[in-house]
Amino acid sequence: MVYSMVNHHIPGWDEPPTKEACLEWYRRFDRDSRGLDKGEFHDFVAHFLADTPQKLMQRVGGSMLIKVALAPLCASTMKRTLKKQPLIGPLVKIIPVSMLSPVLTAFGDVIKAAIALKR
What we know:
This protein has 119 residues and is mainly α.
């Protein structure tokens, strides 16, 4: 359940392992059939999360790069350019870049969703 909740909030979706698969892994790592001791539990969790760092970087890396670097850079450039416009320049001057950046990110998400719907 926690696995599913976390995955729904991270870009890209992986189906959680089935209950049967988890029980099979549990049986494989429970060497003495008395439940998992500390070492067995460590091995079980290490196997369960073996490819997590690679998957996490693939799934989160691109969106984080956009949100942390690209969107603020574009927002800063956009603000600098729009400040020079006579009609909207005074309004743009009072809007901080920290507010423009999430707007650009949301706009990009809307465009991405519209493209996905078009396919």
